[in-house]
Every structure is written in C-alpha cells, then in structure tokens.
C-alpha cells in the first residue's frame, strides 16, 4: 500500500472565531507530520492534507472536534510520495470564494449519490454544468456538460445571470458538479437564492464518483485536476498522465509537453506568450537549482509551514 494518505475535506459550519482555531490546528498538523493546505473562515473549513496514516487520523480527529464538524465528510486516496511541500493553515473570508454576500451555503441543492448521477445527467430535462475553472475542465469533464469557461469561481454568478434564460429554457432542472463537492454546493445555494428550485449536485464531487463508479460504467471523460503534486487522477483515483507547469502552475498534457512552447520548469503553451525573457531566465535558473537539489537528494523548497 502507498505510504501516504491523502484526504480532501470541507465542512460548511459557522465558526465564531476562526482565528482562535488556527494556531491549535496548525500545531496539530506539524506534530503529526501532516502537510497540505487548510482554510478557515466564518463559514467553515476546506482543504487537502496528506501524511502517514496515524498522523492524518490525528488531524482528522482534531478537525472533527471543531464546532459542527463531527460528521466531516472526507475523500481519501493514497500517494507514493508526499504531494505537498508545506503545511498551511490560512484564514479567509470564504472557504471557497464566490463573492456573493447573500448566499447561505447551508441552503444548498439536492445531493445526488454517484450511483444515481449517470441517470440524472442523461435525462433530457437536465442541464449539466461544470462549476470548475477553464483549465480544470480542459483536463476532463462529464460528457455533455456545459463549460462556463470561467477563470475564477468569482466569475460564476455573473456567467449564470448572463445565460440564465437559455440554460433554464423549457423548464430544465440543473445538475452541477466540481472536484470535491464544495464549489457546486455553494453554486447550488447561489442558484436557489436566484429563485431556481430544481437544483442538484454530485455528492462528494468528481473524486467520489471516480472512486466509486467503475470505468466501464462511467460517464466521465479524461482526468480530474487536483490541487497538489499528483496534478490529476483517473478512475479509482489512480495517478493521471498530466504534469504541472512550474512557471504558471497549470496542468500540462502529454501533447503540451511535445509543443515547442513547452520548456520544463520555464513555460508551457498556456503561459509562454505571457512571460518575458527575464521571467523565463529566472524560471530556468530556479529549475536548474531544483535539479541540483534533487541530484543531492534534497528538496528545493522554502519553509515547511506558513505562519
């Protein structure tokens, strides 16, 4: 079995004093040898962590002891190498940033289990929306899903309002999905606040679907981008084929790596035209230093945690 346990988690629950929770949570992660990023906000907690089994279990126990987190839902996978370089516990205004004040994430749409998802999205009366950003959708999505082509989740409310009439034409119901469930949960709450009654979302997100639904029965096409060093995963949450551009942090496919615009550690087809020669030179030097560190058996990273 792979040595590292990877857990993606979130919980919408009111925290009266997120700042007071931060220090003890960071200490718990550091003591347990757990790395990753956790976000705390008045609306709850969100993040992905990784570490040895006992260490992750200790951190999850700490989180489940927080207000409203006893039934915390976790998506788990295994990794051969540690997928994070640092431990970060950050305070935010929102655990997933939409920027719409009146949305109550606890008033989300109807959950749909992965086993029931295929039938829902195959229904002609359903419009299926991918709530993720454009670079994530490019790695993979459900067949027939609408891509809003947003660069940020903040763009989603304006996109929906601009296309509402065409999306809901004929009285269609809406089904939405995202990586782990958090964005589509908030997106369904937004649509309900906009007066849309029949709104559904995939429980546990794409990650749970890929974990539970066999490839032979799947409506998923491609891979699922994840925000750690695994970059992307496929069915059974097996490691995918995508790499990461170290210049812009965007996923790169096998075809991207064959492009003349791709230089490892320096640029990829997505960012090549946006970076001047000085930026590329700095990136090339950093890549050289990374390679030298690897040759010495060292990790070329900064502090292992963020205060």
Quick structural gist:
By secondary structure, this protein is of the alpha/beta class. About 30% of the residues lie in helices and about 20% in strands. It has a six-stranded mixed sheet, covered by helices on one side.
Give the DSSP E fraction (strand runs of 2 or more residues).
15-25%
Question: Separation of termini?
Answer: 33 Å
State Rg.
20 Å
Relative helix content: 25-40%
H and E string = EHEEHEEEHEHEHEHEHEEEEEHHE
Strand order of the largest sheet: 4-1-3-2-5-16
How many strand elements? 16
Q: Residue ranges: pLDDT <50 for 5 or more in a row? A: none
Count of helical stretches: 9
Structural classification: alpha/beta
Largest sheet: 6 strands, mixed
Q: Averaged pLDDT, please? A: 93
What does this structure look like?
This protein has 307 residues and is of the alpha/beta class. Helices cover 31% and strands 22% of the residues. A six-stranded mixed sheet has the order 4-1-3-2-5-16, covered by helices on one side. Strands 6-10-9-7 form a four-stranded parallel sheet. A two-stranded antiparallel sheet has the order 8-11. The longest helix has 19 residues, at 277-295.
């Amino acid at each position: 079995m792979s040595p590292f346990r990877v857990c993606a988690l979130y919980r919408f629950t009111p925290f009266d004093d997120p700042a007071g929770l931060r220090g003890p949570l960071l200490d718990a992660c550091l003591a347990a040898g757990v790395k990753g990023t956790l976000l705390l906000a008045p609306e709850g907690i969100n993040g992905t962590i990784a570490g040895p089994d006992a260490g992750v279990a200790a951190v999850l126990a700490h989180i489940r002891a927080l207000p409203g987190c006893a039934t915390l839902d976790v998506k788990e996978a295994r990794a051969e190498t540690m997928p994070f370089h640092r431990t970060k516990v950050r305070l935010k205004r929102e655990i997933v940033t939409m920027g719409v004040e009146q949305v109550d994430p606890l008033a989300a749409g109807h959950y749909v289990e992965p086993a029931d998802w295929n039938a829902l999205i195959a229904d002609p009366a359903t419009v299926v929306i991918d709530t993720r950003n454009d670079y994530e959708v490019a790695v993979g999505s459900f067949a027939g899903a609408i891509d809003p082509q947003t660069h940020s989740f903040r763009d989603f409310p304006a996109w929906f309002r601009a296309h509402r009439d065409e999306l809901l034409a004929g009285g269609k119901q809406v089904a939405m999905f995202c990586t782990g469930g958090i964005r589509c949960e908030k997106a369904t709450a937004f649509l309900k606040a906009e007066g849309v009654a029949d709104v559904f979302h995939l429980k546990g997100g794409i990650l749970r679907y890929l974990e539970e639904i066999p490839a032979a029965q799947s409506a998923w096409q491609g891979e699922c981008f994840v925000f750690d060093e695994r970059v992307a995963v496929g069915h059974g949450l097996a490691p995918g084929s995508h790499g990461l551009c170290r210049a812009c942090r965007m996923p790169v496919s096998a075809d991207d790596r064959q492009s003349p615009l791709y230089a490892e550690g320096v640029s990829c087809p997505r960012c090549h035209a946006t970076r001047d020669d000085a930026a590329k030179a700095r990136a090339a030097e950093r890549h050289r230093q990374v390679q030298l560190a690897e040759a010495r058996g060292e990790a070329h990273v900064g502090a292992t945690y963020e205060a």
